[in-house]
Amino acid sequence: MSDATAPNPDEESLVDALTGTQKSAILMMLLGEDEAAEILKNLSPREVQHLGGAMYSVQGVDQDTVNAVLDEFLNVIKQQTSLGLGAGNYIRNVLTKALGGDKAQSVLSRITPASSERPIEILDWMDARSIAELIIDEHPQIVALIVSYLDYGLAADVLGLLPHDLQPEVVRRIATLETVQPDAVRELERVMQQKFQANTTLRASQIGGVKAAAKIMNFTKTAMEQRIMKDIKKENKDLMQSIQDSMFVFDNLVMSDDRSLQTLLRSIDTEILVIALKGADEVLREKLFGCMSTRAASNIKDEMEALGPMRLTDVQEAQKQIIAVARKMSDEGTIVLAGRGGDEMV
Questions:
Q1: How far is Cα 54 from Cα 18, in angstroms, rounded to an integer?
Q2: Mean residue pLDDT across the chain
Q3: Where in the chain is the domain with CATH 1.10.220.30?
Q4: Is pLDDT above 70 for 344?
Q5: Which of 2, 149, 174, 231 has a beta carbon 3.0–4.6 Å from 213's, enabling a disulfide?
Q6: Which residues form the signal peptide (predicted)?
Q7: Does domain 125-245 have CATH number 1.10.220.30?
Q8: 141-164 tens-digit pLDDT
Q9: Best CATH choice for the domain 249-331 from the list 3.40.50.2000, 3.40.1190.20, 1.10.220.30, 1.20.1090.10
Q10: Helix axes 222-235, 210-218, angle to 10 degrees
């Protein structure tokens, strides 16, 4: 009897060979489509792509492996059938319910042979290097239009992968974009059709502008930001100033409410905060210290003193990391950031 319940060495080796993502994929495929779709909605595009690929890679695993994975995660065997049957339709249905048809098609195009649709929206599901390689030979205006459609963090990453002499030109063109008429969208579609063999609906689009350029610049590295702004200033000083005025900088935190700052501080690594505060003015320092416990504030002050002199570029980089987190939390609705001048909320 004891032999019947002993672990099977071969079974254990199979389970050990699975990655964490593959084990998660097995569990996902044991769920109903609606439940799996709800989980996928909370994952990033990269995570969905990895998990979707893993779901295909494990569709042929045997029942013993499935049971072993269930034992490992849940200690309860809830499924008695093979995963392989109908896996393609299952995965397509789950991704479609979670992401909508267009984005699901984009993910499926990476894990199965499939054609992509709605290329503009699909760009958000591509990695920065792939997008940069896709657009690097296009006219700067086309590049600016495409970058304008991206999420700001992704746009900053793409911008960083473009040639240095092209970067300020792209930011300048983004800053001067406002309403994009159908002719411009048609030209953009022509370019994207060549890349994806698809098309999008023509309509006037509100993209770009100074605020969009400023938000993208908020996500760039300090050295890159300074170089781009310097080049833009050479051609259009007023435009550079407008972009700079619209950027949310570290000192703007002083205008935010205490509750938002407390929430933000809980998400910031102490080491980064210590470096960032080295370059902050006294008013902002006291504001942030007031949002901490007395003990925490005292510890931060001690670490700042022990740190000694810091390079300005290191301080600025730490401040930009905090601003990137702050803007992300603001976009998610977790905190509220008071804009420059105090009368605009971003």
A1: 10
A2: 75
A3: 125-245, 249-331
A4: no
A5: 174
A6: none
A7: yes
A8: 888 888 888 878 888 889 999 999
A9: 1.10.220.30
A10: 150
